[in-house]
Amino acid sequence: MSDLIVHGGKPLTGRLVPSANKNAVLPILCATLLTREPVRLRGVPEITDVRKILEIFRSLGSRVDVDFRAGTLEVQHDATRFDEREHRLPEEMRSSILLVPPLLARFGVARIEDDVKGCSLGMREIDPHVEVMQHFGASVERTDDGLVLRSPRPLGASQHWLDYASVTTTENFVLCAALASGRSVLMNAASEPHVQEFCRFMQQLGARIEGIGTSRLEVTGVERLGGTDFTFAEDFHEIVTFLALGAITGGSVSVRNSAPQQFPLIDRTFAKFGVQVRHEDGWSSAETAGRLKVREPFTRNILQKVEAAPWPYLPVDLLPIFVALGVQAEGSVMFWNKVYDGAMGWTAELSKFGAHAFLSDPHRVITFGGKPLVPASVESPYIIRVAIALLMLAASIPGHSVIRNAAPIRRAHPRFVENLVGLGAEIEWREGD
Ligand SMILES: CC(=O)N[C@H]1[C@@H](OP(=O)(O)OP(=O)(O)OC[C@H]2O[C@@H](n3ccc(=O)[nH]c3=O)[C@H](O)[C@@H]2O)O[C@H](CO)[C@@H](O)[C@@H]1O
Ligand SMILES: C=C(OP(=O)(O)O)C(=O)O
């Protein structure tokens, strides 16, 4: 178990360059398996999920040359082989499922393990993925510990309309369609910044994709994909995290941000807690005039609210970070997670800090913020941004707090503790059983 020990109450101040977005890096890594040509990636973060994917690449016989200090990765899958009886996809990460289309395209066979669940946010379905593979011509067989899929090569083109705008299902559709024979169309496609970044990478490999950033993606299959040299963009999750850490501790953090056009709704959400975000010359910063305070709506008798849903709504993964602001801000806010049915239960843990948060149903929680808080020892569920939300509160409360089981942070944020120490935090990892 990895715990975070925090001596809170210090304002965090300074400038930071964020890392790449795990949810762009992982599908892009999986996509490299579609080509036999060398691919060079820059800005590769040293996070556990990346290590797991590189490990499976090595075990498949691919060439992997990574330098995490420089952030560069050279990968080539020319001598790669896959045996469904021998190889297992990485566990405890959702992105494992993104290895399935490249395996089908290259070897005509793939496995989906029972454990491709990722963060414990509630039900994480595999049916939409299986349906996509079936539309492209795959057959599916259930085994004791997962599914085995087999498909013709090349895959046939597909016209498909998703039940909902699923991030990884959209990416899997594009991965299948890139080398399929003919024109494939996906309706109700996801359009998150990481989905767009992934599609741009696919274009660099030579994939023919139209409609990036919209809910209709059209992909015309090509015979083969080439190599490329690609630099990852900055992670909006990490930008928001550091801005929020500055605001909640009464400090001021500036974060490099090359895509402020993605931020208008995020900025308005910060403003609901009295935090003003500014974007200038490629940097974003957050300022608070005095205490955090919830902005009262003009409509009488309603609560201020933050709604999270598929893009272009506020991303659900950011919700815990705003819940932490809600706990510290004077006033009440309703948080509404429209995606997951089990992502809010962790808020019971907030009472250990002396906070008042009420779980109204599996999707909604109300914070009654601005109460005096005390340091505490709290337990994080296996949810990356919840570990961060608990840490934000610990950092804002004077005294000694412990976030038990904070290791999920390492799935997405490289050098997280080092970065916070650089901003003036007193925080360290404690490794235990
Ligand atoms: C590796 C990766 O990229 N993971 C992200 C990806 O996961 P992932 O692609 O697994 O998430 P999906 O978009 O498929 O949504 C997750 C679950 O939410 C439910 N659902 C979702 C949308 C909807 O309109 N209705 C609905 O019921 C479904 O049960 C679904 O299984 O997107 C999620 C939603 O942004 C993020 O939390 C994850 O961090
Ligand atoms: C929930 C997340 O990741 P995953 O889907 O891999 O669990 C996340 O990145 O916040």
Automatic annotation (TrEMBL):
InterPro entries: Enolpyruvate_Tfrase_dom, Enolpyruvate_Tfrase_sf, MurA_subfamily, RNA3'P_cycl/enolpyr_Trfase_a/b. Keywords: Cell cycle, Cell division, Cell shape, Cell wall biogenesis/degradation, Cytoplasm, Peptidoglycan synthesis, Transferase. It is found in: Cytoplasm. GO terms for cellular component: cytoplasm. It catalyses: phosphoenolpyruvate + UDP-N-acetyl-alpha-D-glucosamine = UDP-N-acetyl-3-O-(1-carboxyvinyl)-alpha-D-glucosamine + phosphate. Pfam families: EPSP_synthase. One of its GO terms (biological process) is cell wall organization. It comes from the Bacteria. Pathway: Cell wall biogenesis; peptidoglycan biosynthesis. Residues 7-420 form the Enolpyruvate transferase domain. Its EC number is 2.5.1.7. GO terms for molecular function: UDP-N-acetylglucosamine 1-carboxyvinyltransferase activity. Belongs to the EPSP synthase family. MurA subfamily. This is UDP-N-acetylglucosamine 1-carboxyvinyltransferase. It comes from Piscinibacter sakaiensis.
